[in-house]
Specification:
This protein is an alpha+beta fold. The protein has four helices and seven strands; from the N terminus they run βαββαβαβαββ.
Length: 172
């Protein structure tokens, strides 16, 4: 298997993860998001077939979005002079594994790869957290992969804002 970054000229092969929104993003929104510099999409290919994909974009965790003790825990990770109203993040905008590849730990291995690549990549911008608006059905997957819920309830109740603290892993 090979992880490749989507380009505007790349032809996409068939993909079905069982969720029409996630399928549609890959075929209808991934290239426009790339072209508009909104999100970068990465594809896990297996002999020319798309086994999984995810997209990354910039985000923030803001005091205005978080209620209760979770914000205090986040803020207390920083010295008093660095306690701000928001902290930089990388957001996993979409994350999907094709139905035929489920049950092979591909999602967990891909999530580990994302964390390690982001942790070791030398970028021009820094961030502390990874965030995701997890579908309710995917919350157990993200919790298994070290993510924590930021809020108890979302407005639309179909997703839950979750985060992973990059300081929980060490560079390899």
């Amino acid at each position: 298997m090979q992880l490749i970054q989507l380009t505007l000229d790349r032809e996409l092969t068939a993909f079905d993860c069982g969720d029409s929104d996630l399928n549609a993003f890959l075929f209808e929104d991934a290239k426009p998001a790339l072209e508009l510099h909104i999100a970068n999409t990465f594809i896990l290919e297996d002999d020319g077939r798309i086994a999984a994909y995810f997209c990354l974009l910039n985000d923030r965790i803001s005091r205005n979005e978080i209620i209760g003790s979770r914000w205090k825990k986040i803020r207390n990770c920083f010295p008093k002079s660095k306690q701000f109203r928001s902290y930089p993040c990388v957001k996993i905008g979409r994350f999907a594994v094709a139905l035929e590849y489920r049950g092979r730990r591909i999602g967990t291995e891909l999530m580990d790869n994302i964390k390690q690549q982001l942790r070791t990549a030398h970028t021009h911008s820094a961030f502390r957290y990874i965030t995701v608006d997890a579908y309710n059905s995917a919350i157990p997957f993200y919790e298994k992969n070290g993510f924590h819920q930021l809020t108890q309830k979302e407005e639309d109740e179909q997703t839950r804002l979750m985060f992973f603290d990059m300081m929980e892993i060490s560079p390899k």
